[in-house]
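Good day; I would like, with your permission, to put a structural problem before you. A protein sequence and the structure tokens that stand for its backbone fold form the material at issue. Thank you for your consideration; the sequence and its tokens are set out here:
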Amino acid sequence: MTDLNNSKLIEEFQLYQQQYQTIMIQKEQMRMQELEIEKTLEELELSKGEKVYKITGPIMIKKNGEEIKKELQEKKEDIDLRLKTLTKAEERVTSRLKEMEADLKRMVK
């Protein structure tokens, strides 16, 4: 391999590492949102019949508990889908990183 090819490979490897880090950060954020929604749904179950409020921007609005529950379940489904997409992206990037790592090791030898 030429020096130009080597530097391109190293540069590409670094870009894939950055992509991997970005994916992992996004996955962690999605997991945190999912956990928050699950806890909120649990609280909704415990507060049957009580007043339920939803914060929208700078105001708090009284809403039907079932309506909020449905919104949260839909949001959780969206997050689950996003997590699956991120997991697939993570697998692709990880696979490519392993290939590139092998190429880099051969390059060093």
Q: What stands out?
A: The mean pLDDT is 93. The chain has one domain: 3-108. DSSP finds two helices and two strands in the chain.
